[in-house]
Structures are given as structure tokens and as C-alpha cells.
């Protein structure tokens, strides 16, 4: 989703396109997602073999990376000339806490993504290329990639990293990424906890930050947190 406000001087872009890149049995997941409390949820989750209710192919992983990372990036690059006309341009990339680097055990990839001095768009491409290569070869677990919905996790980690790069590239922009939480949308098969309106409120808050607000930050709803 891209929002351009031409009735005022502020131009806002919100990227909210995303796919899971895997098939999930949401009927099984719903049994522990909607458990009455954390203890029951933990017991239900432990009783489920996630590999039996989640499946990811190379084709679905590639589509996920192309949509979640490269799709968002293309929209940003296409709209940059328009955003630069504003005296207070904003970009909000919608990502996920699942894309935090703590969820990636591939030390080579994590080392590149966490190092602001070494991180470049070309290195992001390298990470994604290697991930897809390992996916095709069936070596995700041995190479330290996430075992479940790995394409979703890696593509969103890449989008978080791209957000940081953009913030450095355009210091006069306000550019952030945000995880809205578990929202009732198509991507969750409407099994989420929050309504779509509640989830969208976190995007809007970042889009309406005052001039000079934080940039290059990842938010978990309203709270700034580590990438």
C-alpha cells in the first residue's frame, strides 16, 4: 500500500505488500494461537510439529523474496523523485518481529546485516541470493537459516536492513519500519489478535511523526526495538 498526500506538503509512502512464502495449516495453528493463556498456548505449540503444518518450496520462497523485499524496494525507488519534492518526506516499511536478526543463525548473513559499516544494497542482494541457493539445495537448516517460514523471515530482515540504508542515504527523510503485531488479515488467514484498523494505527503514527523525528528505526508497534 502506498499513500501519497498531495493536498499538503508532506509526502508519505507506506509499503504494506507481503506474502508468507509458505503453505500453513491455519486450522491447526488457530488451536494454539487462540489458547486462553500463555501456558496453554505453550503446551499446544509444543505438541505440534511445525514442519508438518508448514511447507515451503523453492518457488514459493523466491516469490516471497521478490514480493516482500524487491517489490517494496522497487516502489520506494520509483517514488523517490516525488518524495524528494516534500520538505518532510516519510517512508514506512511494514515488516515483522520475525525478521529480527536474532532469528537468523547463519553467522555470515547475520554478520553482514548487522554491520552498518559493511552493509550495502549489493551485500543485501548477496545474502538473498545465497538464501535462495541454499533453499534450492535443501540446506537451510545446516546453513543456519530459520527452519520455518524462512523466506518470510529473511525477506523481512532484508527490508529492515534496507530501511536503515535508506535512512542513511536520505538524512532529511523520516524512514522507519514497523511490526504491527498479529493482525487479522489475509496473510494470517484472519487468525490474528488485532483488527486491521488497530494494526494500521501503528503505520499512521509513524507517518505522522513530527519533522525531525526518529529515522532508521524498527518499531514493534509503538516501541523502538533492536533490528
Automatic annotation (TrEMBL):
UniProt KW keywords: NADP, Oxidoreductase
Lineage: Eukaryota, Viridiplantae, Streptophyta, Embryophyta, Tracheophyta
Name of the protein this chain belongs to: (+)-neomenthol dehydrogenase-like
Organism of this sequence: Carya illinoinensis
GO MF entries: oxidoreductase activity
InterPro entries the record matches: Sc_DH/Rdtase_CS, SDR_fam
Family assignment from sequence similarity: Belongs to the short-chain dehydrogenases/reductases (SDR) family.
Short name of any one Pfam family annotated for the protein: adh_short_C2
CC per GO annotation: membrane
PROSITE patterns cross-referenced by the UniProt entry: ADH_SHORT
Keyword Oxidoreductase: yes
